[in-house]
């Protein structure tokens, strides 16, 4: 910023050579100010890591090495030089304007100089320093070092006084301040390097995977208990070999009684060594080839950090760990290959590549039906990255597989044929058992379906503040985060947000959830078959409309009236057109309908 000053107005006209001399002097000071401002911004951007790189590449004689040795002196040199140049150039500019335009020029000199300084000594030089930091730094580092040497005594004096003053008020100057890089900063640096092309995309992904591994726990990577291939110690070696061939595992956990009591790890190479000895046969038991020290299982807690487990397995030379829960039961197993694959991606051997079929692949694209076919065991983070489901980190810490997340969204284990609407996708369960979802299809909704789904979601928010939710889009059921399905039907909050809408095994939910023709609710109980239930119709929690087909009494409605016999048979409720009556024997609300 220019500092306004005053200079004596000459009593006589100045010669042309004097004016040129004064202008050249002012321009030189002005240029030094601009250059130092550009260098200041450039070095701020490069400090400390890039400057260290330059110093290491160029050796001890590098000007960057000298600059790093006294970074506070550099800052003082920039400040001292730009301040002095600004003051002297301001006085010279006022005198120059006076020489050219007399008293009028002197009056407007401060305004003109301020504008010139802002644009040509501040904004533009600093923009150049930010956009071309390396070039700017290399051009200016030697002049700055020279100026720093010239101002060394003054710099030392002012720096010492500043340090004493800061200590007096309880502060300290640290040259290392700001050099520590947090994990979040490192992640941002990696993303920036990938975006700018400084590192390859795959390299950046690998670096991010290493950082993510430090935040992951074993239960997010392990092979879950239901997928663990293990053998009882009393089984024969023939059975062990067959199990090894079928599972393609060279190491198989051995248990006694049940899988929660793993006593060792059977290695295929030890089996072959045993069989190679004379007199040994496949009829021997697995227990006979186990050695207490050599084949002792390596146990890890399920909440342990994956990075720590990797380091521990590497040090102790274990290739497989048994993951246990807080009660000591077996949660799953984790292998060195599982941990490495988190960093470098899936690793297949030649046999796996030859036999890898479409049915076994985690993610496939069905071009004919324009949909994804995804295994329930697929990595949830990978699915989120591909489909952009915007899943939060807290969910990633709770679920590692796509199946687990889908079950959580549904509130239960969905059955084959169930649909869920998530974001802009239709998820259909293609294959499932009583314990988990095995395979799903993911299809993007059409624009009409997406708009209808969005409209229903907004209405749902207006009608209720929380709890289970259900709405119907076309023929697809959208389940909210806490909605659940019971039996063969669906149990969830009704569309109007009061009570519960239920269906029995033979019930059919009407196609339009907005209630214009909420017609058939069951083949056995014709409830409101011909009536039109407007949005003002509501059911309170004590109402059950023919939920139990074993009951003899069912509600029946026609266009003009509702005659509803209570389940206990103790009274009747009548609602005449234009009036409302809602009572039963106990006096609790039973039904309500506008005309």
From TrEMBL:
Pfam families: CBS (PF00571), CNNM (PF01595), CorC_HlyC (PF03471). SMART domains: CBS (SM00116), CorC_HlyC (SM01091). Residues 222-282, 292-350 form the CBS domain. Residues 454-464 have a biased composition (Basic and acidic residues). The keyword Methyltransferase does not apply. Residues 15-203 form the CNNM transmembrane domain. The keyword Cell cycle does not apply. Residues 444-453 have a biased composition (Acidic residues). GO terms for cellular component: membrane. Residues 444-469 are annotated as: Disordered. It comes from the Eukaryota. The chain crosses the membrane at residues 71-94, 106-124. PROSITE patterns: CBS, CNNM. GO terms for molecular function: flavin adenine dinucleotide binding. It is a multi-pass membrane protein. It is found in: Membrane. CDD domains: CBS_pair_CorC_HlyC_assoc (cd04590). InterPro entries: CBS_dom, CBS_dom_sf, CNNM, FAD-bd_PCMH-like_sf, FAD-bd_PCMH_sub2, Ion_transp-like_CBS, Transptr-assoc_dom. Keywords: CBS domain, Membrane, Repeat, Transmembrane, Transmembrane helix. This is CNNM transmembrane domain-containing protein. It comes from Chromera velia CCMP2878.
């Amino acid at each position: 910023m220019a500092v306004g000053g005053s200079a004596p107005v000459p009593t006589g006209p100045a010669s042309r050579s004097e004016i040129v001399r004064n202008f050249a002097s002012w321009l030189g000071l002005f240029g030094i100010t601009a250059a130092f401002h550009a260098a200041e911004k450039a070095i701020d951007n490069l400090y400390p890591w890039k400057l260290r790189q330059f110093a290491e590449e160029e050796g001890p004689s590098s000007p960057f090495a000298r600059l790093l040795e006294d970074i506070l002196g550099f800052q003082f040199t920039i400040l001292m030089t730009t301040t002095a140049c600004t003051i002297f150039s301001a006085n010279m500019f006022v005198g120059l304007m006076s020489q050219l335009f007399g008293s009028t020029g002197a009056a407007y000199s401060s305004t003109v100089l301020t504008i010139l300084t802002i644009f040509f000594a501040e904004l533009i030089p600093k923009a150049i320093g930010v956009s071309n930091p390396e070039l700017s730094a290399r051009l200016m580092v030697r002049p700055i070092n020279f100026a720093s040497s010239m101002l060394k005594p003054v710099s030392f004096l002012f720096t010492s006084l500043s340090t004493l003053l800061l200590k007096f008020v309880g502060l300290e100057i640290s040259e290392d301040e700001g050099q520590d890089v947090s994990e979040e900063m490192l992640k941002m640096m990696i993303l920036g390097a990938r975006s700018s092309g400084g590192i390859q995309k795959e390299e950046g992904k690998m670096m991010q995977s290493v950082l993510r591994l430090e935040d992951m726990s074993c239960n997010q990577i392990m092979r879950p208990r239901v997928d663990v291939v293990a053998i009882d110690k009393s089984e024969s070696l023939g059975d062990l070999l067959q199990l090894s061939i079928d599972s393609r595992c060279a190491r198989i956990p051995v248990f006694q009684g049940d899988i929660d009591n793993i006593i060792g790890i059977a290695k295929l190479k030890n089996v072959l060594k045993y069989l190679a000895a004379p007199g040994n046969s496949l009829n021997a038991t697995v227990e006979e080839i186990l050695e207490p020290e050599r084949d002792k299982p390596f146990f890890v807690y399920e909440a342990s950090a994956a990075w720590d487990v990797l380091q521990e397995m590497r040090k102790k030379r274990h290739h497989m760990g048994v993951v246990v829960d807080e009660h000591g039961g077996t949660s799953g197993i984790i292998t060195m290959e599982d941990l490495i694959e988190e960093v470098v991606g899936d690793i297949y051997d030649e046999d796996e590549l030859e036999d890898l079929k479409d049915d076994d692949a985690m993610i496939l694209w069905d071009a004919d039906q324009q949909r994804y076919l995804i295994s329930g065991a697929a990595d949830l983070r990978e699915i989120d990255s591909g489909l952009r489901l915007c899943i939060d980190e807290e969910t990633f810490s709770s679920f590692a597989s796509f199946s687990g997340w889908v079950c959580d969204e549904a509130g239960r284990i969905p059955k084959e044929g169930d649909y869920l609407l998530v974001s802009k996708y239709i998820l259909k369960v293609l294959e499932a058992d009583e314990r988990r979802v095995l395979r799903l299809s993911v299809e993007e909704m059409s624009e009409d379906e997406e708009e209808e789904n969005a409209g229903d979601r907004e209405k749902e928010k207006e009608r209720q503040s929380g709890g289970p939710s259900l709405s119907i889009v076309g023929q697809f059921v959208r389940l909210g985060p806490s909605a659940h399905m019971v039996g063969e039907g669906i149990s969830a909050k009704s569309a109007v947000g009061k009570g519960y809408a239920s269906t029995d095994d033979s019930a059919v939910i009407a196609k339009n959830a907005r209630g214009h023709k909420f017609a058939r609710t069951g083949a056995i109980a014709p409830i409101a078959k011909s009536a039109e239930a407007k949005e003002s119709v509501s059911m309170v929690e004590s109402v059950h409309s023919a939920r139990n087909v074993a009951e003899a009494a069912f509600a029946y409605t026609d266009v003009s009236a509702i005659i509803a016999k209570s389940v206990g048979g103790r009274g009747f409720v009548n609602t005449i057109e234009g009036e409302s009556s809602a009572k039963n024997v106990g006096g609790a609300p039973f039904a309500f309908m506008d005309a």
